[in-house]
Amino acid sequence: MAYPDAPVGRSNSGDLLGLSFAVKDLFDVAGYPTSGGQPILLAASGIKTQHARLVAQALAAGAAFVGKTVTDELAFSLNGSNAHFGAPINGAAPNRLSGGSSSGSASAVSLGCADFALGTDTGGSVRAPASHCGLIGLRPTHGRLSSVGCLPLAPSLDVPGWFAKDIELFAAVGRVLLGADTQALRHPRMLMPTDLWELLTVEAAPSARAALKPIQQHLGGAQSVEVVLENFDAMTLSFRRIQGREAWESHGDFIERYSPVLGPGVAERFAYSKTVTLDDVNAARSFREKFVAHLDSLLGTDGVLIFPTMPDCAPLRSTPESSLEDYRSRSLKLLCVAGLSGCPQISLPLVTRAGVPLGISILGPRGSDQSLIALAQQFMRP
Predict the structure, then answer these.
(1) Residues 293-336 pLDDT 10s
(2) Which residues are catalytic?
(3) Which residues constitute the domain of residue 256?
(4) b/e per residue, 260-279, with b = 16+ CB within 10 A?
């Protein structure tokens, strides 16, 4: 994490007074460049003169800016390793990856360098690091938080989010950033997506399933449902095509003009992105519309899905890239549900396996973000 040399003013009053926060290096902070985790982009950035809107909101509420954090390159990875700027340390498990692409923000909170940190989530970039680092992390309803002043990857999938260790502190940040729900959960119903639970590894399944007991105490019996539409391949292919097409629209000109050296995995994903045709993405967007209708019918106005955030705890830092790509592909099956639907999903550090964290998620109808945080408060209070 880069500690600030240029002063960043804040309010002397507000609901976040006394708290410190870090900012993923996709968000503009006045007095600093914005790198997106890419050295040539950093060189071309120049010093920003305005804060991203979310940064300004946090400062206006009294929070103190303590620095910008590493992001996986151009935010196009889940691994938590940047070929140019390194792999931030996972404070909950230092021999394991932090997860990305909001790797540095999760690291900063897990190591106690900041009380909370801003990140972004396109394909899981808040939820995966939250799960790996033992943090609370929210992917809000798509469009609920402002992305003004934030470097895009795939705008119809991108959302800002944040991390914290403490649920009451997390809720305080939510009250500042989110505002009131448009779809409050009056009588939440617990839904068990059996198809998503089957994605857990054999090693992780017993610990994760044990975490359901306290949740059921609050919500009562669970109704089994099937979330997948058609099959997992149809869902993940649609997600990857939308993400790829929009990622190339966001960064293709930069890549072709400057021919930057892109890190492992990132280079291959942009090479794929360039090949996604208009017909491909239109078919994927049509599938997304059907999936949104499907999930809306399952959730109604008060249904909440409970499922593992990731298929297992964080991979070891020594894991080869080929295995990380396999893990990423498996993870995307869990993570694309919120991405395709635009629904809010909060990951909670409710599970440990061999001393390593694994998150359990609650996903609710669009606009129910504050209600999900309130549910999380019930689950996490002693």
Answers:
(1) 999 999 999 999 999 999 999 999 999 878 888 888 899 999 99
(2) 24, 101, 125
(3) 232-275
(4) bebbebbbebbeebeebeee
